[in-house]
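Q:
Just now I want nothing more than another pair of eyes on a protein record. Here is the record:
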Amino acid sequence: MRRLTLAVGAFALIAGTVPAWTAASAAPDPARAAGTVPAGLAAQKIAWEPCFEEPPGGDGDDGEAPPSLPPFMKRMDCGTYAAPLDWKNPGGKKIEIAVSRLRAASGHARGAVLINPGGPGASGIDMPLAFATDQKGNPSALGKDLDLVGFDVRGTGASDSITCDGKYYGSTLDPRDRRAKNVERLLAAAKKNAAACRSKLAAYVTTAQTVRDIDLLRSLLGQDRIHWLGYSAGTWLGAQYAAVFPKHAGRFVLDSNTDVTGTWQGLTGLQAKGFERRFSSDFTAWAAAHDKRFKLGRSKAQVRRTFEGVRKAIAKDPLPLLGGGDLHASDLDAYAASAMYSKWSFPQLADDLRVLRRYTGVKVRSTALGGGVPADLAAVAKRVHAAPAPHFSGPSVYYDSEYATFTAVTCNDTKFTGTVKANVARSAKLGKKYPLIGYSTISDPCQYWKRPAGALALRKPTGKGAPPVLMVQSTHDPATPYEGAVRTHRALAGSRLLTVKREGDHGLYASGLACVDKAVDAYLINGVLPKGDTSCTAPSLNSVLGDGSEPPMVEMGAKAYGLASLPADPIARAAVLAKHFGLKS
C-alpha cells in the first residue's frame, strides 16, 4: 500500500484471515461473457487532447514566465472514457474514468504499458511523466517503442470520485493510551469515519470492478494484451487483472508486493512488523552513525529511546503550534512512519527529531517556549501536518478522494473478520511488539463497514494461463513487507522474484538502482525474464546519504526541466513534474 497516514487510521489489519476467493470453476463471470459490454461502450473513442499547454509566457504562479514544455510532454495526451458503474449491470448507469497516454517516442508503438502507483486509490494519471526520461534527463528506453498509459481508478483523482465529506475523526487521539475512556473514543471515531466514507458510489469502488474498467481501456487502446507496471497496491490490482483476464495479460512487473493470497486486513498486521523493522534497523542505525550532527544517540537503542522520550513528552503535553492547535503524539507517529517509505526522508526526520528533542526536554522546555513557538519548531510542525496538494478540482472530484477510495477498496474487497473487542486486543498485542504503528490498528474503519451484498468477487491469483510476472522487492520494505512478497511469489506460477538486499525503499524501479532498472527494462521492453529468482545488493545508507547534510533529493535530470532537483521516488517525481508544468484536469 503506497500511502500511510496513521492519522486516518487506515491500517488496522489483522493477520491470518483468508478471503473467499471465487473458484476457477465458478459460474461464468458476467463481465467476461460475450456481449456483456454494451455496443456503445465498446465502440466509444477516447477524445485525446494534449495534457499540457505550451505556456504563453509571464503567467507563472511566481510572476515569472512558466517553463517551456520539454519535448516529451508534447506527446502526452489526456482523455476520458465511460464505464459501467456496476459491471454486473453493464447496461446501467455509467461513470467516467480519466486516462493519459505518453505516445511512444519512435511513433510506432509495439504495445502499451499501464502504470499504477498503488494506494489503493492513488491518482495515476501523471505516472507516465516519471518514465519518459532516464535519470540524466535523456529519453528513456521504456518510452521509445511503448505507449506509457496512466489512469485514475474509479473513485479517485479526475475520474468520478468519492469523498468522506472531508472529515476524519480521532486524529489527535493517542492509540497507545489504552484507558477505557480513550479506547471508547478511538472506536467511536473509527465508526464515524466508516459512516462518513460510505456512499452509493463507494459500494462500487472495488478491485473487482476496476479490473473490468482496465480491460475496457485495453480494448479502447486497440491492444490484445496490455503490459503492466504496478507499485504497492498496484501489485494487488495487477494480480487480479491477470487472474480475471489471463489471455489479455502481457508482461507484468509487480514492484513492492502486497500479499495477494491474503486480505487487506491481514496486510496491515504484517505492516506493523515491516514499519518497525525499517525504523528500528535502518533509520536508527543511520542516525546513530551520525550522532555528531543529530545528537539522537550513538546506538540504535539510544536513538529509539530518544524517539520514545520525545513521544512521551508530547503525549503528556502536546506542543502548541503557531496559528492554533497542537502537535500530538499521533502526529509524530504518522510523520515518522511516512518517512520510512524512502531513505531520502531520513535526514529530515532525524533533524526534526533533534529539534523536538530540544523543545521537549524537561530542563529547557519552559524557557524555550516561554515567548511563543520558535521558528524551527514551527517549521517542524508544518512538515508534520503537511497535507498533499490536490491534483484536480471540479465537479465530482474531491480533495479527499484518495483516502475515500483507499477506505472503500480495502473495506469492500475482503471481509473484516473478528469482533471489535478482538480487534482491540489484537491491536494492543501488535502495539506491544511493534509500537511504531501497531497500536494504531485499533482505528480501522473496516470493522464498522457494511460490505455491499452481491458484489463482484475477487479471483484467486495463481498465475495460470498468463505470462510469468517479474516481482521486485526490497528486504526491509515497510508498507509491503518481504514476507508477503514471498507468499505472492509462491502463489503465482512461473513468477520470478528479484530481491534487493540492504534496501528498504518502497517502490524500486526507476529510483536509481541499476540492477532493478536493467531487469525491469529487459522484461517490459524485450520480454526477457531472469532465468530464475535473483538478487542484488543496494549501496549502504551511509554511502548514499552521507550524514544527511545534502538535500534529501537527487538531481535525476532536473536541470532538463528547469528544476533544481527531483525526488528519487518515481511516483513523487511524476507528481512534481505534473504540478510544475500544469497538468490539465
Observations:
- The chain has a mean pLDDT of 87.
- The longest helix spans residues 264-289.
